[in-house]
């Protein structure tokens, strides 16, 4: 992928004298959600390279002490003019860090603070490997590989080569399910979204972006592992659960939630990465591709919900409408 | 505090030959919530020491590669027999890490995997500096100080010496507010809890433990900085918000949420650490004491709510009642 040359370039220039030791993933809302798989990957796989994932305004107001010349700061903003994200990239440059920005806007303010910018593609006709979540993951896989070596780098390339085909087939498979989901849950006002591992970020993302922001519905994400240590006490039939079941190491956590929900809730929608074919990917790296699959699949779920509720996904009452 | 001698002992024994490079904070539910301030502190203040905060079952199923002899794993479990937490401590020992456990049960299974155990005090008549949140923070402050030096160590000692007095006065101040809150919101079914910085973990904790687990109420936490990037679209008067306003660096994020909520929501309960006297603590470390204050204050809020709703805080329908 195109990410490799960016990292190679940074390694031979910016990080030649001062080794890369920290990666900061900084954004807001949906763009921040796209960073979770990369953050989870670095936390799980790196020997020494540190990783942070921070909402941009917290990064600006409470920047970690370690931020400096040994840092790579990756900032993503779809429109590229989100003030907090622009301020974060500026702060990163002021502290001597290298910056990679990702945006869909070639004239974004963000670009003035970018050592490298990835102008990504967007829309239903693009490949997921061209979208931010996979690109940021790929940037971090390449970074880890070049900084400290990473035995599964090649397996990742296989995964990136396979994922779009898996997703295309999976989307065809869920089309009727999305319609049935929308039909059944169109009058619900609150949803819980569960997942674990690299996909927890997307459970959060589906709650805050797809349901709260785009559908004005109440929602909350719950980590499948945390479910049994508090949240599950609310379980009965008053609320639907969406369970994003991972293929890979944390699948057991999701399965445990499924078993419980099967017994105590009649409104559980299971989206199972294994059943949707993700197990075609190399087992050593499959964990990190779950959220890439879930992102595409859940876009179809939310589109069906928006359609039946006659609440277009672009409707806003505050964002970009009023001052705040 | 008693934490210093534990760290000193580990440094001169376990970590003498293999320097301490990673701290893993591992627990479930309320105990995991208690770890957030320490994790946030290390992320913000350490030059090199890495920190992870993980729900125990994810730690067990997807243990990070860096876990090993250079790791300190801190595991907390109130009853000390939570299977996932016991398994996490066992895994840590099997991987050669040093372990510190915290529990309220002197006969806990957890103890068999502990290099050091802190048997903490609990209950309304104890000091917060004797409870897990402050103890874990203190352990990590002492760790950072001994591993790489930390200029604000003494300021932290001042903070620990002051915090119980601040909290005692703050609790007296909010007594009537708690009763009014309970009276006004007793029939609500859903709450959003907002905060930022070191207190975000407690916003999450109040949602999942106090409201979902102990009151069987729907709830979700929202980071004040993320609020404007999706979640705020649900704002109107159908749902109450609880805003935990920090003293310190991220206060601006909470204030921005407050300004918005003042305009678009009639049911916002503000709990303001500055107004409650937390600014008496040293400014360089005050950020990390916000959640310690909020924990105590919000215990009084939830007690008032439990009382008026006639739903005792100890009521459970699943936890410890059915198999799962």
From TrEMBL, chains A, B:
Pfam families named among the record's database cross-references: SIS
InterPro entries tied to this protein: FrlB_SIS, Fructosamine_deglycase_FrlB, GlmS/FrlB_SIS, SIS_dom, SIS_dom_sf
GO terms for MF: carbohydrate derivative binding; glutamine-fructose-6-phosphate transaminase (isomerizing) activity; isomerase activity
GO process annotations (BP): fructose 6-phosphate metabolic process; protein N-linked glycosylation; UDP-N-acetylglucosamine metabolic process
Keyword Isomerase part of the UniProt annotation: yes
Entries under SUPFAM superfamilies matching the protein: SIS domain
Domain SIS: 11-150
Record bears the keyword Transcription: no
Keywords of this entry: Isomerase
Record-given protein name: Fructoselysine-6-P-deglycase FrlB with duplicated sugar isomerase (SIS) domain
Xref: PROSITE patterns: SIS (PS51464)
């Amino acid at each position: 992928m195109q990410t490799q040359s960016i990292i190679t370039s940074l390694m031979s220039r910016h990080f030649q004298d001062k080794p890369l030791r920290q990666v900061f993933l900084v954004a807001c809302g949906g763009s921040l959600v796209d960073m979770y798989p990369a953050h989870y990957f670095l936390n799980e796989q790196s020997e020494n390279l540190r990783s942070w994932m921070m909402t941009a305004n917290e990064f600006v107001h409470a920047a970690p002490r370690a931020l400096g010349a040994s840092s790579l700061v990756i900032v993503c903003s779809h429109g590229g003019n989100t003030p907090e994200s622009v301020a974060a990239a500026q702060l990163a440059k002021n502290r001597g860090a290298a910056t990679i920005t990702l945006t869909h806007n070639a004239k974004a303010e963000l670009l003035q603070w970018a050592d490298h910018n990835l102008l990504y593609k967007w829309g239903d006709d693009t490949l997921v490997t061209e979208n931010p979540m996979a690109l940021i993951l790929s940037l971090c896989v390449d970074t880890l590989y070049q900084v400290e070596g990473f035995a599964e780098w090649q397996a990742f390339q296989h995964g990136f080569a396979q994922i779009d085909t898996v997703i295309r087939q999976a989307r065809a498979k869920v089309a009727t399910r999305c319609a049935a989901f929308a039909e059944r849950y169109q009058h619900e006002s609150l949803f819980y979204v569960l997942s674990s591992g690299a996909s927890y970020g997307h459970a959060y993302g589906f709650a805050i972006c797809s349901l709260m922001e785009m559908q004005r519905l109440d929602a909350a994400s719950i980590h499948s592992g945390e479910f049994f240590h508090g949240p599950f006490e609310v379980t009965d039939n008053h609320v639907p659960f969406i369970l994003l079941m991972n293929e890979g190491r944390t699948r057991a956590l999701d399965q445990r939630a499924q078993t419980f929900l099967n017994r105590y809730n009649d409104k559980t929608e299971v989206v199972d990465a294994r059943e949707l074919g993700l197990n075609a990917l190399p087992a050593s790296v499959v964990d990190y591709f779950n959220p890439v699959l879930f992102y595409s699949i859940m876009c179809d779920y939310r589109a069906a919900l928006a359609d039946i509720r006659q609440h277009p996904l672009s409707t806003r009452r505050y964002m970009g409408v009023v001052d705040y």
